[in-house]
Write a structure and sequence with these properties.
single chain, 69 residues
Length: 69
């Protein structure tokens, strides 16, 4: 099946140490561009092998959830 940019994107980039610079990050811009091209997006179902957990990013994520945002 043909998908946007013929690659798999990563929704885990927000909690990954290298996520800010990852070319596979499933950002809002990627989703918007895919929608405009009318192509489906392929994304990882599990964290990929390149994933490196960032404790600082995970803490910020859970702090936001605790506040109810």
């Amino acid at each position: 099946m043909l998908c946007y940019k013929d690659m798999t994107f990563c929704s885990f980039y927000t909690s990954c140490k290298d996520g800010d610079n990852c070319f596979r990050a499933l950002t809002d811009k990627v989703l918007e561009d895919a929608r405009n091209s009318r192509l489906p997006v392929s994304n990882f179902m599990e964290k990929p092998d390149c994933f490196k957990e960032s404790k600082a990013k995970m803490k910020r994520f859970f702090d936001v959830i605790k506040k109810g945002y």
